[in-house]
Amino acid sequence: MALKEVYFSYKEYMRQRYKEPLFSVPVDVDFGCPNRAVDGSGGCTFCPEHGVRSAQTKDAKNIEEQIQKAIAFAKKRYKAKSFSLYLQAYTGTFASVLKQKEVYEKLLSFYPFKALHVGTRPDCLSEQTLDFLQELNQKIDVYVELGVQSMSDKTLFAINRGHDKACSIDAIERLHVKGLKVFAHIIVGLPDEERKDWLYSVDELVKLGIDGIKIHNLHIIEHTQLASQYTQEPFKTFDEYEYAEEIIEILRRIPSNISIVRFSTDTPKRELIAPLWKMHKGQFGEYIAKTMHYRGIKQGDEVEVVETKELTQPKTVQLEDGSVTFWSEDYRDYYHPKAGAYRQARELFVARSGLKERLENGDVRLLDIGFGMGYNTLEALKISHQISQHAIHVSAIEQNRMLLKQSVKVVFESLHVEMLESLFATSVFENINFLNVEARYGVRLLNVPFDVIFLDPFLESNNASLVTLEFFQALRKLLKPDGVLVASTSLHVSQIGLRQAGFDVSLANIEGSDIKGIVAKIATSSSFEEGIPYRDPNGVLSDKEIESQHQKRSLI
Question: Which of 111, 241, 335, 510 lies 20 to 30 Å (CA to CA) from residue 126?
Answer without folding.
Answer: 111
